[in-house]
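job 3f2a | input accepted
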Amino acid sequence: MQQKLTDVALRALKAPTVPRIGISDTNRVRRCFRLTSSNKATWLHQKQIKGGVRRGFTLGGYPAMLNVMS
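job 3f2a | predicted structure (70 res):
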């Protein structure tokens, strides 16, 4: 799923029924927001290294990292 990741959009998200969901930011390449069914929210930087599998590196939690990420 892709959408513009704003504070308003992120606050409107509900905890998913599946273990977790990932939302890619339409404004910033490789930035992703992950929300788990236990309502834990984190920012990720996704990268594919040398044609291998895509990996996600955790940048921090939400909303603590919101001001840094803008």
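job 3f2a | The chain has one domain: 2-69.
job 3f2a | closed
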